[in-house]
Every structure is written in C-alpha cells, then in structure tokens.
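A quick aside before the break. I want you to see a complete sequence-to-structure record at least once, exactly as it would be stored in a machine-readable document. Don't worry about memorizing anything.
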Amino acid sequence: MNIVACNYERHATPILEILNQAIVSSTALFDYKPRAPETMVEWFRAKTARQFPVLGAVAGDGTLAGFATYGTFRSWPAYKYTVEHSVYVQEKHRRQGVARALMTRLIAAAEEQSYHVMVGGIDATNAASIALHVELGFVQCGVIHQAGFKFGRWLDLAFYELRLRTPTAPVDG
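That is the input. The structure line, written in tokens, reads:
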C-alpha cells in the first residue's frame, strides 16, 4: 500500500465512490443520499484552501483503497488547534491495515501543521473503527445518544480524541 497526497484530477472519482458506498451501505456517514460528482469540486477546493491533507492509500493494482482527511472541527476561532478527521476504506480492502496506515500518516500531518487535538465522530456500534482509534491512542470523550436516524434506527455518535504534542507555543487570536 502506497500512501499519496490526493488531488482532484486523479482521485475525486474514486473518493466519491468510496463515500457513496459508505452512505448507501453503512452508518459510517450519517447521510442518506449518494453525493453527485460535482460536489467533489467544492470538497477539494475547501480542503486545498485550508491546507487540509487528503491522503490516499493506493493498492498494488493502482486503485484507491481508501482515503483520510481532516477539516474544521467548529468554525469559531478558539477551535483553531482542533480538527475532525475522517477515514474510509473501500470494502474489499478493509481489515488489511489500510485505515491504520492512513491514520498514522494523518496524525503525523496534524502534528506537522501544529494542531493539538484530533476528533473522530464514530457510530457507537462501529467496533472496528473504535478499536483502531483506541489502538492509535484515541480516547472516548463523549457520546451523543440518538444523534442520527438511519436504516430505521437511532444511532449514537461516539466521539474519540487524540491529543497531540503540538503546537509548542499556542497563541490566542
């Protein structure tokens, strides 16, 4: 598995396919309808504008096995050192270390950019994702019960956080 920086031209379509698969078949995304291809233009533009990485795991056959990114946690200025991340793996590549490789690189990127906290919102029944996050040092920091409703049932949203060593000199403003 090769971890690369994703770009719109090469990776928008496979990222969209991974996202849409998660939307229609899982509770990894609290979304109902597959996203249209044109949504990826703004998605990549927003990531680029804020210098948020979009990392991809490229399989031996050249296909995108998964991707990871982070973005704004909340829009108020005092949250500037906190990001919320996402990691998604194509179904046929799950349980092969793809998410771990992506998350390891994403954590390193967050430290390089001097973020202090990474937050992940995970469906509370997603045992595999929770186990991965715990193994990487994340700790549960809260649950919003019945935060979502999908597939005819209520979904609890568990939040996991990882405190990073950075920034070394945080500032207000």
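Two observations worth writing down. The first helix runs from residue 8 to 25. The chain has a mean pLDDT of 96. We'll return to this after the break.
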